Amino acid sequence: MNQKSFIPPHRTxxxxxxxxxxxxxxxxxxxxxxxxxxxxxxxxMDEIKKLLQYAFQTNxxxxxxxxxxxxxGMECCFANLVEPDDKVIIAKNGFFGERMKENVERFGxxxxxxxxxxxxxxxxxxxxxxxxEHPDTxxxxxxxxxxxxxxxxxxxxxxxxxxxxxxxxxxxxxTGLAGVPLMVDDWNxxxxxxxTQKCLSASPGLSPISFxxxxxxxxxxxxxxxxxxxxxxxxxxxxxxxxxxxxxxxxAPINALYGLHEALLILKExxxxxxxxxxxxxxxxxxxxxxxxxxxxxxxxxxxxxQLNAIYIPEGVNDLETRQKLxxxxxxxxxxxxxxxxGKVWRIGLMGQSxxxxxxxxxxxxxSKAI
Amino acid sequence: MNQKSFIPPHRTxxxxxxxxxxxxxxxxxxxxxxxxxxxxxxxxMDEIKKLLQYAFQTNxxxxxxxxxxxxxGMECCFANLVEPDDKVIIAKNGFFGERMKENVERFGxxxxxxxxxxxxxxxxxxxxxxxxEHPDTxxxxxxxxxxxxxxxxxxxxxxxxxxxxxxxxxxxxxTGLAGVPLMVDDWNxxxxxxxTQKCLSASPGLSPISFxxxxxxxxxxxxxxxxxxxxxxxxxxxxxxxxxxxxxxxxAPINALYGLHEALLILKExxxxxxxxxxxxxxxxxxxxxxxxxxxxxxxxxxxxxQLNAIYIPEGVNDLETRQKLxxxxxxxxxxxxxxxxGKVWRIGLMGQSxxxxxxxxxxxxxSKAI
Lengths: 371, 371
Fold this sequence. Notes:
Two copies of one chain form a homodimer. Chain A contains twelve helices and 13 strands. By secondary structure, chain A is α/β, with parallel strands linked by helices. The first copy, chain A, folds into two domains: 12-18 and 272-370, Alpha-Beta Complex (Aspartate Aminotransferase, domain 1), CATH 3.90.1150.10; 23-267, Type I PLP-dependent aspartate aminotransferase-like (Major domain) (Aspartate Aminotransferase, domain 2, 3-Layer(aba) Sandwich). In chain A, strands 2-10-9-8-5-3-4 form a seven-stranded mixed sheet, with helices on both faces. In chain A, strands 1-12-13-11 form a four-stranded mixed sheet. A two-stranded antiparallel ribbon of chain A has the order 6-7. The longest helix of chain A has 21 residues, at 272-292. Chains A and B meet through helix 1, helix 2, helix 3, helix 4 and helix 9 of A and helix 1, helix 2, helix 3, helix 4 and helix 9 of B.
């Protein structure tokens, strides 16, 4: 066995995540570890909460980072909000809708999956039809930014529809947060989760999450215990919300949280709207270049996520070999297609720190040489 | 809101964890983030697996790090191994036995709790009586190193008893791994989990874990799906065990894994037996000094964990004020008592990098000034 320290190469990360992590964030993670109950650490956790409230544009008290990757954030929402036999409508237009279905089933709920083609946005009419057919539905779940296709869905309209029919709205914004407009309070979203390794450009391993008062009420009044001790918000609330001292629940990932704190500061310094605009502008720049290479997009122009560009693999070009060449010869990571799109599309991420002109030039010039 | 980078103080960490993280590990975490499906990263994951097999002294194929703190490792064991209506005997002699009970209940099992006083070791006779009373028991769960009391329990004898009665054995070694002798294969343990922030001295956020072939068989043949998608080993197996390419399950905490890799290398360089001996020797040194201060131990000498010293708070000494003084005036963190021991004991950790002579001198001299 190779018994040496691991020295990773310098990659340019333009896949579906992780995105490039800045020197500032890397340095923050290397600061001395202190105790998770140290008053100074707890103060930093309060700052993270406020910074996350800014990123989500919410005043929700229950806003924090789950101590595990984005998929645990998804599970945290479903484990806490779904009770046995609850009907949950899932607006599925990609890979992550399927995972939501798995979550609902495992927690004893009844998933009602409304399918739209991968790469299309969600059809609101179909959701409303399902609501009429199942008036006892409790929750509607949707994906703001489908990482598997690069399609943007409008959580505001879906949430309005959910509330019109007395449902709660769960939104996946793993790839959305900080990359496209999102206003959790204005849009009245009840539960939302994200990841740190996309447009926030922190290292993976944490899942920012936020719950409305209505969601909290449902969780507090559950008839059955949450089928997870680690993710039970009734326990976690006292850890993140407690004043003047927190009860021990689990040991927080201290150094990862240093990194998230720094990444959120960088976002605050830039300003959310500037971040949204930068993602948009750089997407247009990439698009221009791809057009010159005759490469087309999977998603209609008006529904495209600027931070995740699913593009058709040019005819006659070998998928795997090209990606390997990009990685080995140009230190450039782009993403493969997922699920039904495997072998058909590549996913080029322009997320967070990775969304910049130098990366775009590097990507276009490497692509033109590799294909 | 304070909008500055977070610069933590330099603490000496002698509580129940996290322990001091070395410069080598901190630096490793600051190396450039690469993709979680990058072949070079996957190679590092394979090295981590081999290094964990060394630390656990096992050849178990299913040996890896759960992408979340130790409590998620506990949940991973119970979520996967407990099926509805399974009887699980829990040898409880402290705080973490209670958590095991919570886990068993949430996954639909029937916990049979065998209580021993906090600070005592587990009484094998009581376990055997329970087995005779409940011959349909499926699992026995025990805590190798009770972090709440500093008591050592012998997982070898408990596992032998479990197998004599056709049960699997789950062992919590969150605080045990690398601090006291542990031979997973020789002792035939079926499922075991640990944490990174104790005697391994990596940052918190990951949970090393290992499963025997018998445990894997039980998981593969479950009648009901695991009540967690994030922790379902049937899915995770293909992520950590897949050859020549891994299927995407979740995004691994890349930089935290860099840190764990380095921490495991440090352990390998020192050698497991040397690490066990160092923990023992330093415990004796601390004990000598505490005796001079007339401070006594909660646990009988023969059952004490060298890495976690639960000591009685001297009469007339204020618990909270003294710990605050140690933190503020001496940058020294020691642990409070947990549960029924709150206000009665302190917990002094000598774990991993924190187990050294300089720390012990600093601790004894600070304590003598503060009490």
